[in-house]
Amino acid sequence: MKQILPTWINDVDPLDFYLSEPRPAPVDRPWVMVNMIASVDGATAINGASGDLGGPADRAVFRAVRASCDWILVASGTAGAEGYRTPNPDEAVVQRRLAAGRSRTPRLAIVTASGALDPTIPALADTTTDDDPGDNRRTLVITGEAADGARLAELNAEIVRLPMPAPRPDAVLGEIHRRGAAVVLCEGGPTWNGQMTEAGLVDELCLSISPILAGGTSSRIVAGAAQADPARMRLRSLLTEGDLLFARYTRP
User: Fold this and answer.
1) Is residue 132 scored above 50 in pLDDT?
2) What are the pLDDT digits (tens) for 173-228?
3) Which residues are CB-contacts of 44 (< 8 A; sequence separation ≥ 6)?
4) Residue 238 CB partners (closer than 8 Å, separation 6+)
5) Tag placement on the chain: N or C end, fewer CB within 10 Å?
6) What range does the domain containing 216 cover?
7) DSSP per-residue string spanning 171-199
């Protein structure tokens, strides 16, 4: 993998690159990363899932970005469509995380307004635990007062019901911040990204650009945001492998 910006480097290890980037958390919440892939015409999925947009290079960057966070946050629709699993990094990533002062694995949080989660997805069906008894790997489900209690009772997860009809992004981040998170990685979907953007809570965007003209009706990486004043981002770096591009943006 090559780095094009800010300087040209012929051989870059994504794990070294993403783990070395500074992510200073605000006083009252974690630093928020958003990681998404999109085709060159803006599609975030093909046939309802993002897997066909990527390849080995995108998976390497995905691995490195996940290595850089304390928690992974995803909306229920994406968790179901992508068949989310409990994070299980390889040993090289585990050792790098421990050296950086993080837990062995990031913990997964799923946000849902309705509580209508599929209890059979791996992240909710897997009852195994990590070898480290001090590392809590159980999925956290964050919801609000309007969620279906019967549906929630079917889930093998830790449930948090916030005191509001539907979970707001600031309240969700507050709950995760209370649990010690300094860096949270948001993996979508686009509607949840829209809520995060509208609330002004996105500090970093890691965007993989796939060399595919997808067509179709797939949404953009941020959908439904009613923000009148667009958030300005600064391009910090650009990597490439083959025809794929990997851009990293942060707030100015």
Assistant:
1) no
2) 999 999 999 999 999 889 999 999 999 999 999 999 999 888 877 778 898 766 65
3) 36, 37, 38, 50, 53, 188, 189, 190, 218, 219, 220, 221
4) 3, 4, 5, 245, 246, 247, 248
5) C
6) 2-106+179-250
7) HHHHHHHHTT-SEEEE---HHHHHHHHHT
Tell me 106's DSSP state.
P
Distances (CA, A) of 177 to 33, 56, 167, 169, 173: 14, 32, 15, 12, 6
In the predicted model, is pLDDT for residue 54 greater than 70?
yes
> Beta strand 107-111 with 140-143: parallel, antiparallel or unpaired?
parallel
Report in angstroms the alpha-carbon separations of 103 from 93, 94, 128, 129.
11, 8, 17, 14
123 inside domain: no
Lowest mean pLDDT among 81-90, 97-106, 210-219: 210-219
Q: Is the peptide bond before 189 cis (omega within 30 degrees of 0)?
A: yes
Q: Does residue 47 form part of some domain?
A: yes
Handedness of CA 102, 104, 107, 108 (dihedral sign): positive
Domain-embedded: residue 168? no
CATH number of the domain bearing residue 99: 3.40.430.10
Q: What's the pTM? A: 0.92
